[in-house]
Protein 1
Amino acid sequence: MERVIGTTRITLVRGDITQQTVDVIVNAANSSLLGGGGVDGAIHRGGGPAILEECMAIRAAQGGCPPGQAVITTAGQLPARRVIHTVGPVWNGGGHGEAALLRSAYGRSLELAAEHGLRVVAFPSISTGAYRFPIGKAATTAFEAIIAAVGRHPEAFDEVRMVLFSAGDLAAYRDALTTAKVA
Ligand code: AR6
């Protein structure tokens, strides 16, 4: 399943984010940048200690990464060239700015990718694991942010890929991408 906006393909695959051979994969990190479970654990395990070393240097310089923001490091031994670490919101009922923070997490990640000339970007489903954001709303919000970023940077990206871990997650993102409005 894919949709094309100008010269950018928005694609969906079921798989493991650490196995993607792309310019940059995005990590669903936490504000400490010191690692964790889920996607974050898999990326640090697969990439090796070089990723944590750069995260610690960023922490020393700017004191972590708030929700909705993003930072970039090496990908260590992973097949991707770089890792962008973004922090999604913890779902707390939806009335605490969660959707805006999730939009920002996708949007800032794509701004950083564009700044660094990274043209093929792979995202996991940010915030829908440990942070409990409902999958359908997360999928709709992700594509709103991705489509807006592609609109701001029409020349920057060849592909923005969502990498979904389960069949259920893939189905939710397929529904959201099918119905997403492209301006
Ligand atoms: N590839 C692709 N998707 C994956 C993978 C993988 N290797 N592993 C899990 N998923 P989560 P969050 C899916 O919890 O909700 C960490 O401890 C998973 O099934 O990784 O943003 C951080 O340090 C789910 O659908 O991220 C933070 O503390 C989705 O990825 C916190 O969790 C996101 O699940 C962030 O929580």
Protein 2
Amino acid sequence: MPTVLITGASRGLGREFARQFAAQNWRVIATCRNPAAADLEGEVHALDVTDDHCVRSLADTLVGEPIDLLLNNAGVYGPRDSDFGRIDYDAWDEVLRINAMAPIRVAEAFAGHVLRSELKQMVFISSVMGSIAQTSVGNGFIYRSSKACLNMAVNILANQLRPNGATCVLFHPGWVRTDMGGPSAAIDPTVSVGGMMNVIKRLKPEDSGRFINYDGFDFPW
Ligand code: NDP
């Protein structure tokens, strides 16, 4: 039975990933900031992805256990009115910590668990808003730059871990009806996660470094 560890599993896409992987008989290690408040079944651990001590201590708790798929999903949008001329630098700092630095922190802590597994996969939930090629508007300063930073970091990571047989990819999940995506978003979490799981099922080491839409098409950087 393969194992997946999911960050930000308390709601939205993370919770749907936990549900769908469990339904496909994976061992699901769900993590979130406040397990007591989350509507999650099975194996749940407290994990704030920005807290170095918390990340390392969970990696220690799970030492020796292979993790086939490390799913870096946790993320925030940040303040929606913080654009050029009125940038909230503290908020930018916090969003960079959560969206760009934390997924790499988690990857560093769990690389050993992933590399001892059979599948050796790391998936990072990015966004089309992190694509420089697709950005022709002057808003979303904080969120867009955080996801662009994540894209570059994962590109480097994919190159670094390729010789170890690891597959690291980024996804745009679509515009999804979650707390972040809002009620007018285009698709349900079931469709987004179902699409990404179809792609994940077919991932091969040569896919490492791809930036993929939830339906399997590649995104321009
Ligand atoms: P939600 O706002 O519904 O959920 C965000 C999740 O991230 C929550 O579980 C939240 O936990 C968790 N989280 C936030 N900060 C931390 C932290 N410091 N440590 C641990 N967990 C944290 O968003 P979505 O489900 O929509 O987003 C999931 C991912 O998909 C994000 O990376 C997002 O950027 C990306 N995405 C989403 C899109 C959409 O349309 N929905 C579009 C493109 C990308 P808590 O409950 O504790 O707050």
Protein 3
Amino acid sequence: MKKKIDFQLMAISSVAIFATMILISSVFYELYQSQIIDDLRSYSNLLVESSMVEHMQGSGYTVPADRVRITIMNADGTVWYDNEASSQSLDNHKSRPEVQEALENGEGIAVRHSSTMQKSTFYYARILENGDILRLAREAGSIWSISYSTLPFVVIMVFFLLVICLLVSHFLTKRLISPIEQLAQNLDNMSEITAYEELQPFITMIQEQHKDIMRNAMIRQEFSANVSHELKTPLTSISGYAQLIETGMASDEDVIRFAKGIHANANRLFSLISDTIRLSELDSGEQEVLFGRESLKQLARNCLDMLQFSAEKHKINMNLSGEECSVWGNKQMVEEVLYNLCDNAIRYNNEGGRVDVNIKDLGEHAQLTITDTGIGIPRDAQERIFERFYRVDKSRSKSTGGTGLGLAIVKHITATLGAKISLQSEVGKGTKVTVLFKKNESDK
Ligand code: ATP
Ligand code: MG
């Protein structure tokens, strides 16, 4: 690219230099020509006014042949005086363009180039008072010879200008490109790069994208580390129980107990893996999410039916209230939100506690509230419970088979559905989770 810019700049300058030279030469030559003609005209005036012509006619006086050739002829073109050649040897001059023109207009001009193009002869003719024609001629360099004589100067000039162009283009391209090169080499420390104004939006954009990429990479790395760590615990337990049975020393009762342990840990592994897979699916955003109109109350009813067994086990009383209301969303996703929130409300409840699910039509939104009379969430943990693998009380969560991914999935889904989730909780009293679903496709 640098080379390309260098080359183009030099090409443009060369063309510009040559064009200027040609233009200047032709303008200069025009001026030069009219200057010569003017000189000849003044000279003729001088000859006429000083009565030189009559003097020549009378006394046969000859003006020394210098740079101007003087020819005088009759109106019919017969030459009777010439200061450079004998008038007898000269043919009739009537057909000469300058003489023709003078006969018509009083004065005439002509330029004739020599065959080698080296020299040009300038002619000026005028009618004298007695009808004779005075013609003055002068030789001068042609445009080619003038251009030719200035050529070395032009070449030096072109060379000089090209060198300047090369330096300037080199400097400019360097200034243009160096911040970009710095940027490419120094993505982590972009604040140190000093760039020109026009590049700033681009740098800001790259900076933000780079930060996002780094952040995502870190989150992913952290997540993989957490997953591996979480998988290790149940696997270690399973392996331990199996080893104990393997020795053959465990009693029948122990074997049953160990099998239970293996079962519980295998279940934990199972939910851990399926939650991880679900999160990766949501993260990748590859699957197309089909939206449709769903009855929120119907989905809540199904969810409570599904959790009935678990609620009974924990001696929790579940209750569904509110109006029929539709939501705009993906059925599986709405089900997952309901399931995870109700499951938490049961799991982090006290024996004999209550879970109230309420649905309210708010016009543009459908409001789902899930209220429990459970253990509550400390204020400083209320934000964090939506983080992956975050559990307030690790041991309690683990003993109930929790992975700490449920609310992370819920948060991801609500963002996809354009729903808003909020939480109110008091330790020892209970928790109330509110979700505002969109009711129509276009609502924000
Ligand atoms: P999973 O839902 O993946 O099986 P989990 O329930 O531990 O596991 P989340 O649903 O993400 O994970 O919840 C995170 C943490 O938030 C829980 O471990 C628990 O400490 C706390 N929490 C969630 N809901 C409630 C609630 N209704 N009452 C009290 N604490 C809660
Ligand atoms: Mg949960």
Protein 4
Amino acid sequence: MEKKWWKEEVIYQIYPRSFMDGNGDGIGDLQGIRSKLDHLEELGIDIIWLSPIYQSPNDDNGYDISDYYDIHPEFGTMEEFDQLLNDIHARGMKLIMDLVVNHTSDEHQWFEESRTSINDAKRDYYIWKPGKNGGPPNNWRSFFGGSAWELDEKTGEYYLHLFTKKQPDLNWENPKVREEINEVLRFWLEKGIDGFRMDVIPLISKRLEFADAPQPSFNEVVAEVYSNGPKVHEYINGMYESVIKHYDVMTVGEGPGITKEVGLNYVGHDRGELNMIFHLDHMFLGHGPKGKFDPVNYGWPEIKKIFKDWDEAMGDSGWISIFLDNHDFPRLVSRFGNDQEHREASAKLLAVLILTHRGTPCIYQGTEIGMSNVKFNDINQYKDVETLNFYTEFTEAGTDPKKFIELVHEHGRDNVRTPIHWTDGKNAGFSEGTPWIEVNPNYKEINLTEVKSRKDSIFYFYKEFLKFRKEQPVLIYGSFDVIEEPSENLYVYKRVLDAEEMLIILNHSDEHSPLAFNLDGYSKIQNNMENTMEKVLLPWEARIYKRINS
Ligand code: ISL
Ligand code: CA
């Protein structure tokens, strides 16, 4: 297995709006981030992934960019960005930026020009089509509800937007668009950043027939119709060859629609494309035909199968990131753990899971202090365009508004977008002003001051485990093998590198669970709780054993 720095380090995602407000206007910003670098350094993470901070009308919280070369004034200035980058590097950490190039904002100058006339020089920067039978060109639906086409009165044609109508899709067929994006890459790389997280990158090449999509389930439409288009590898390889390979940086692609069958086409070591991907298979679990607000049941057997299948698919030839939440999905402890009576234990178990699989771990802000989902009761307390659009769509189609809000409690993106709890004081120490979205009322119990007051807290568990992981090459380069256990509550796997073996045993349940595995020759080196019973695990107990093989 090839040794690379980006396999050995750990990523931490900052969602800037909600991280720390430096100037009291209620919105997280660059100065706020600078003021909290001590925290990140103490925690021991290596790479900061910053969600978008560019100029944006904020229809989708910055994932709708109107100027790739400027910082949103709510976040600060370019000078402050340069200072932040400097500070991060001075502490030995790295910074990767979010590259959102499947679409821009409709307020981007390119789109404003493009929509002026059919003959405009920038017309072909976007995807324009005449309507069909008095309606849109085809039946494609947007990720955030409704048709993926919007009629523009000025020229009487429709433009494609796979996300909101304020996020028109760029036309990557146009070589000028590709050159514009290369310029954007160069601009940020020349500043000295350490790489990119590439938003919805498998969507950039469209199937140009624009045929109607069969409608089995939205996720299938994404994988088979929107994602993995015919030229996607040509385009990604183009960015690599023209720009990226000239810098020592890492790239991680966000991959809706990238299945394990096609994963290596993006991250195979010989491809000249991406270093790793965030595949979303485990994130999309439980999404029914109409998506996250149309839930279906799933459980740990499905989660474990996804980890196993992906590891097998990558083998020694490719690489993924390991994560259980981000800014688009619920808090990991609420979704995969137990955020009530076993919150601490289950949060620690999930930390072990993330930090012991094969792949680069990615930790979302607030996870290190054990933050959980929020339950707002009024739709007006929610800010996310996805939640608001689907609220309208579902309630107009007859769903009881109260029922819909219950779904939002479980699946909504604002669960992870409320401000970080730094203290138990005013606004959880996030802002002197009025936060742009309300603070989760549980901040009095769950906050950084509290977890730092106790050596047995989630925070110190992460801190110590991150240090431990760095000293264990087997956890980075070792093979990954799942061990079948009779108890369904257990997740047992081995990492092996040469003579060294680590055995990880996780009881992902609220029950005591018997262990069948023979532990002769193994010594326990890590756990998340004390337990004198060797062959029975306590609820949410996690253990690591070590053995040297001759
Ligand atoms: O949140 C999702 C489903 O409800 C995902 O499908 C998500 O839309 C998808 O993974 C793409 O996400 C990325 O691109 C979006 C942006 O809204 C997300 O925040 C971003 O992570 C459009 O840029
Ligand atoms: Ca601010």
